[in-house]
Amino acid sequence: MGLALIAWWWLPSVGVAPNRIVSGTPFTASQVAGWPMAMLAGLPLLLTVWGAMRMDHQRLAWLLGLVVLCLVGWPLWLLLAAVQLVDPQLPQARLAIGSGMWLALFLLLLALIELRTRMQLSAWRSWALFLLPVLVLAACIPAGLDRLALWQEFVGRRQDFFTAIGVHLLLVIATVALSLIVGVATALMVRRVPQLQRAVIATLNFLQTIPSLALFGLLLGPLAWLSNRYDWLDALGVSGIGWAPALLALVAYSLLPIVRNTLVALDGVDEGVIESARGMGMSRRQVFLQVRLPLAVPVILEGIRITTVQAIGLTAVAALIGAGGLGRFVFQGLGQAAMDLVLLGALPIVIMAVAADALLAGVTRKLQPELQPEIQTEIQPQPELKTQSQTQLKPERQPESGE
Fold it and tell me: Each residue of 229-259: b (16+ CB within 10 Å) or e?
């Protein structure tokens, strides 16, 4: 929070440009509305720094309120800057978010995550805290924040933007699904033939070391040859560029977390639980499907979470070989030196990765405490059976002397 305060006072808050081509003029917070207004706007940051010096349980709620107030004030300050600095007579003029605002936003989100963890807030309260600044930002756009450069880039490419999101999500879902099928099958094969484990893990580790662009390039020639040789592949759209090399490369990168976590999960089940299941008369297949696999699900989900977040990021690079997706905006913006166009592609990728990580982490946490008692209850002998077996195994009473 101290760094956020420094970024607020000394780094550029916003930038104003007369059009998309000309580079903007940076303005600090004091230049936007004067020192008194900048000091007043930075007061919640200062109070948060002071309150965090002696943090205890009673102050956590107070600090959380200050951080949320700062996040809500972030779009309101942008609205004030748009009204103060953007000339309404210039229809092409735009307002860019400065480095000070971006850094302050990043640090405020870190503080919000830290406070949420310490206070152990429920999932719906956490999402409400994150969505509140977004709702305020959406309300500020029709009030004058439509001059924001990022918003103008979105308006000019609205149809392409939603199409890119759909392509990006489709590639990620296909990658995770294929990786899960192939990865789990590979892990089961390795468990059956332990001699293959070293070679399989070494191969998957080697694939991770290949740069993504190099792997995309290595797939161009073979896929182009296959599509020319087999008409049915060409009918499916398989070629040296496009979705086919992107999907193969993404699956190759995603196999290692799935295979490794599946092996660790299946081998990490307590042998005492397995022996109890066998003692109940379960077959080998029943032990795997009803005991070992359910207990291994949380760890397997961790591998799926890593794979999903990794695939969301790597799919952006696949835009270089014509696979589409949000990466197209990133590389177009880099080529045109338009950072707002870069952000138009990068910010949804970050949001998708964070949302997928939080969703799968929540599912994992919910499964961990519930699966263990359920499995133990299923494999625990019934009291009636135990009593009956003890009665059957009890030796007959020997007659006492005199009977």
Answer: eeeeeeeeebbbbbbbbbbbbbbbbbbbbbb
